[in-house]
Structures are given as C-alpha cells and as structure tokens.
Write a structure and sequence with these properties.
The chain has 502 residues and is of the alpha+beta class. It folds into three domains: 7-152, Up-down Bundle (Son of sevenless (SoS) protein, Chain S, domain 1); 163-256, Ubiquitin-like (UB roll) (Roll), CATH 3.10.20; 260-498, Ras guanine-nucleotide exchange factors catalytic domain (Son of Sevenless (SoS) protein, Chain S, domain 2), CATH 1.10.840.10. Helices cover 51% and strands 11% of the residues. The chain is built from 21 helices and twelve strands. The strands form four sheets. The chain has a six-stranded mixed sheet. It has a two-stranded antiparallel ribbon with strand order 1-2. The protein starts with 6 loop residues before the first helix and ends with a helix. It comes from Atrichornis clamosus.
Length: 502
C-alpha cells in the first residue's frame, strides 16, 4: 500500500482495483485491508494513556491508516453501487468507519481523510451516538454517518423502474424487441406491439407459451415482464379470433403487406435515434462487467446485465436490417431500403456510433441479403462506392487495423464496437497465464485493465442534446422496439421467395 500520489502509482492502484476479482474475493480484500489498518491498543499507567503499536511511531501509524483509507475511497468511488449489496463489504465499511471515528482523536490528520471518506461513500448524517465505539461517552458531539438504504438493494432483484429487453414473438421465428420497465403491464406491451405491426390492439391478445406447449393469456393489468422472464416460456401475440387454437400469425402474410415506414423517415434522424439509444445502454456499462464477462468468476448474468443488453442490441440491429429488406417484396422499394441503410450506416459513423455502424454493415452483408443480385444491380454507383468504403472499416485483416485507426482518431464521446473490445480482453486472458510461479501475473492484469479503461476515454464527455426532428413522432418507438426475424433459415426462405434462384 502506497500513498499513490504519482500518476504511475495511481495507475497501478487502478489496475489492482479493476482486476482484483480475478485472483481474490471481495472478502479477501476486506480482510487484507483490515490487517493493514493499525489498531490502537490502549492501557492506562499512572493516569496516562499508552499506545502499543509495536515499533511503529505515530507518523508511521497515521501514514498506514491514510493509505488504507485512500485505497478504500478509490475502491468505492470506482465501483460506486456495484458492490454495495455485498455483505462482506457492508460489514467492512462499518468496521473501518468505526475505527476511523475512534482514531481521529489520536490522529487529527485523519479528519480530512474521514470527511473525504464520508463524501465518497455517500453517507448521510444521523444525529445519534456510535454505539459500537469504545469511547462513545466522550464523542457525543460527533455525528454518526450510516450507509444509505438504497445500497442494500440486491443487484439480482429487479426494481420497478429497471428497464430490460423483452421479446414478444409474432411468429415462431420473429419477434418485436421491447425495451420496457419491469413494472410494465400486459396492456402496455400489447399497445407497443400492435403499433409496431400495425394491427388493431383490440383484436390482439398477449399469451405466454411454455416450451411444453402450455398457454396462458395475460390479462390487461398483469405484469407482463415478470411472466415473460421465466426461462421455460415465451411471450406471443395472437389474434383474438384465433384464441381457440391460439395459432400465431402466419409467417409474412400480414407482415409483408405492411407499409415500409422507414422510407419516409429522415436518415440522419434515424441514425441519431439509434445513437441515443445505444449511448443509454453503453453509458450504463460498468467496467467490471468486461472482467466478469471474460473470466466468469461468479458465472451470474447479473454481473454483466448492462453489457449483455448492448450486445443483444447489436445483434438485433443486424437482424433488423435483414428483416426490413427481406420483408419488402417490391423490388423498387427494396432498392430504396438498401440505399437507406447505407446512408444510415454512414451517419452512424459520423455520429461516432461504431456499434450500430458495424451492425448495419453486417446486416447488409448477411448472406440472405447479399445474394439479392437483382436488388444490388439497381443500386446506384455512388452508393456502391460509399458502401465499399464503409465495408473497409469492418475489414478484420491485421487485427481490424482499419477500424482501430479510425476509432482512435475519433474524439469522445464515442461508442466502440463492443464485441471487438471483448475479443481484445479475451485474447489477453487466454494468451497469458494469470499466475506465474504461484505469483499473480500483474503484467497480464495491467494489459486487461488498460483495455477496459478505454471505456472511460469513450465516455469522457456526454453526447449533446441533439434530438431527431419532431415531425416523425413514431421514430422513437420504431427504433426502441425493433421487429426482427431471428432465424437464418426463415431469412433464407424469404430471400429465395422474393428473388428465386435462377
């Protein structure tokens, strides 16, 4: 433990705090810090109080105490609410806080550290005496601070305001991705889906179907999300006139006939809404999620929930591009759609949203779309040239050099292509041993921490308050709730239906 005043020492501390879960538990770290914090053992001799600290003098003792407090402050500041429900950490914070309160009399220099400690921990005042303090009778004028109650909420327990992606299936292989709060009712979900597929809401029903075939129709006030989250069931939307047999929509009969609304929306506005949505997901990712995703130390999804949402979104945008094109049976409109998506990809790049940029380019390069020779033949030369330039950024050769060079030149805020960032962390992990001669390989952990820290650079600034024009009131729900077909075989069947093999 050092005072970590130099930038190199602070980087080393940051490396340790980002990656300690790779080789030790939170409880291990708490116990190690308590062992490093010198306790005061007091006894009285002829009316005088004597401190027994071994051979350490007061300056050494206070220095060690400050080092521990500095590390704890950096730790809690970095993790914020990430570990606040951890029982070991809660007990540790109470213990270390009581010790500092006791020590501030003996070592007044700790008073500044105590105030900073209280500030970073987000503690609030309670005008009560610290009942655990052995000197509480002499400290009635001190104000106790306690951990906020919202720290005690379990990360694994969803609260009513938490938002997740909910899949509402239209057919066996196509669904509408709905971003909604856990407290959302079945009626609210049904309204979103009805608007998306342009079908009268009053003629639809929301039904959960278990993998064993059991069906249950949700009532308007039912909490749809909690029921749909069950691992053994899916949520479907059905026509009420078919409730006896509960047959879902026939694939593409109604879906192909819907108007291609995307053609009437400004491409910059579409890209901007994609970027705003992606930023809300990207900005919520904690750096530790990349560590847990790579090492899977605890193997629980709750440790990577925000990261998983962004990865899911990237996959859905790719499927959305293919779905929109393949559900368009008219050649002239299909050509317009391809041109539209090329322009949207270019705008996403200009807006420094490389996550949606990659997803759209990959969607256009999906085998079921790229084989549409009649469609691509009618794409104007300037659009083909633009698409070739955009494709070059996704070229994986030389370890994605084209993308890395371009992304490095972009100013923040910016959204990286997250799968590639995860690939980098995984490559470092699998290519280097975590332990060498029974010692932690800190060089490996530094490389991982350095890669993870790139998120901070991307989020140095916030995106501006630019919003799409208000003339397209349906733009936000259109982008937030994508309708996709998630089955490659179904996409190929659509592809061959609109452009049969010659």
């Amino acid at each position: 433990l050092g005072l970590f005043l130099s930038s190199s020492a602070e980087t080393l501390l940051d490396d340790f705090l980002l990656t300690y879960t790779v080789f030790m538990t939170t409880d291990d770290l708490c116990q190690a810090l308590l062992r490093q914090y010198p306790f005061i053992e007091c006894c009285t001799h002829r009316g005088h109080t004597l401190n027994h600290q071994g051979k350490e003098d007061d300056s050494d003792v206070s220095c060690r105490k400050r080092k521990v407090l500095h590390l704890v402050s950096q730790w809690t500041s970095l993790y914020k609410d990430w570990l606040h429900e951890d029982e070991h950490l809660k007990q540790f914070l109470k213990t270390i806080y009581r010790n500092v309160l006791d020590d501030v009399y003996e070592y007044p220099i700790l008073e500044k550290d105590l105030k900073e400690f209280q500030k970073i921990l987000g503690m609030h005042r309670r005008h009560t005496v610290d009942e655990y303090s052995p000197h509480r009778k002499n400290k009635t004028f001190f104000q106790q601070f306690s951990v906020k109650e919202n720290w005690l909420q379990h990360r694994g327990t969803m609260n009513e305001t938490e938002e997740i992606f909910c899949r509402v299936y239209i057919t066996e292989h196509s669904y509408v991705s709905v971003k909604a709060q856990v407290s959302t009712s079945a009626q609210e979900i049904l309204k979103i889906v009805a608007e998306k597929i342009q079908y009268p809401e009053e003629e639809l029903a929301l039904v959960t179907v278990s993998f064993s075939g059991e069906k249950h129709e949700l009532q308007p006030n039912d909490l749809a999300i909690s029921k749909s989250l069950e691992s053994s069931s899916r949520m479907f939307v059905y026509r009420k006139d078919l409730t006896d047999s509960l047959n879902p929509f026939a694939e593409n009969e109604e879906l192909q006939q819907r108007s291609v609304r995307i053609l009437g929306i400004n491409t910059w506005d579409l890209a901007l809404e994609l970027t705003n949505f992606d930023w809300s997901l990207f900005n919520a990712i904690h750096e530790q999620e990349l560590i847990y995703f790579t090492f899977s130390r605890q193997g629980t999804a709750e440790n990577t929930e925000n990261l998983s949402l962004l990865l899911q979104r990237c996959n859905e945008v790719q499927l959305w591009v293919a779905t929109e094109i393949l559900l368009c049976s008219q050649l002239c409109k299909r050509v317009q759609l391809v041109k539209k998506f090329i322009k949207i990809a270019a705008h996403c790049k200009a807006q420094r949203n490389l996550n949606s940029f990659f997803a759209i380019v990959m969607g256009l390069n999906t085998a079921s779309v790229s084989r549409l020779s009649q469609t691509w033949e009618k794409i104007p030369g300037k659009f083909k040239k633009l698409f070739t330039e955009l494709e070059s950024l996704t070229d994986p050769s030389l370890n994605h050099k084209a993308y890395r060079d371009a992304f490095k030149k972009m100013k923040s805020p910016k959204i990286p292509f997250m799968p590639l960032l995860l690939k980098d962390v995984t490559f470092i992990h699998e290519g280097n041993k975590t332990f060498l001669d029974n010692l932690v390989n800190f060089e490996k952990l530094h490389m991982i921490a350095d890669t993870v820290r790139s998120l901070r650079h991307c989020r140095n600034n916030q995106f501006g308050n630019e919003v799409p024009s208000k003339e397209h009131h349906e733009l936000k729900p259109y982008i937030h709730h994508l309708h996709v077909i998630d089955n490659q075989q179904a996409l190929f069947e659509l592809s061959h239906r609109i452009e049969p093999r010659v």
